[in-house]
Predict the structure.
Amino acid sequence: AIIVAHSMGAMIARAALRLDKKRRIKTLVQLGAPNEGSFAPVQALRAVYPTVRKVAALDRTHTAEQLARDVFLTLPGLYQLLPTPRAGELDLFDASNWPSDLVPKARLLDEARKVRARLPKPDSRCYVIAGYGQDTVVSIEKSNDMFTYEIRPEGDGTVPLMRAGWNGARTWYAREIHGALSTNTTVLSGLIEILRDGETSALTSTLPEQNRGDPRYVTDADLRRHAVAKVDWDHLTVESRRRILEPIFTPEFTAPAA
């Protein structure tokens, strides 16, 4: 079988390699995979991820915080996509490192850590296409009982480039946002070549120089000021509907609460 998988699907495909004792999987190409996690699930659990807040704004009954508590904090898959802690970084698989208002379930954190530890290493069947050049949360700190997120143009807008890699897998890069990696024509051209030849000249395998610039910082409190007012789906523009799952706030979702 040939598997081309995006984002969380790419992580499920990676996990499947561990069970593929008969090597039925011939090729696996990951697009925008959070191989070492992402901060988007952190923000979803904190009820501050733009998509979560937009969905809550469309919900006539529940707030984003209620949805986080009753739904998102119960989803094992979100926990399993949390960032793998590196030296000196906050260990987000430890519930004591989270703010006190929306605390993840310790049991699900423990299980997620074990799941991450069991993920297989790549072999010659495995390839990665990662996005770059988009403002992305790349690190996190806790202070004043909330998280502060550092944003730099060093990822695809969802997955930081430093966490998209799968050490040992052939990797190429595309300047594209997370959700459009699977529809970008250059990426698709490269994908066809990879599946056919195991190589591609359509994409670069050397990460271009990036202008890091000054980082931008936002807090949980900053993000909770967005998408507070309820929004009627019928009043959304076509553009806003199309981008409903993207981690951005279109104008309809930035109006103050009544």
Remarks:
- The beta strands are 2-6, 27-31, 126-131, 136-143, 146-152, 170-174, 216-219.
- The chain has a mean pLDDT of 94.
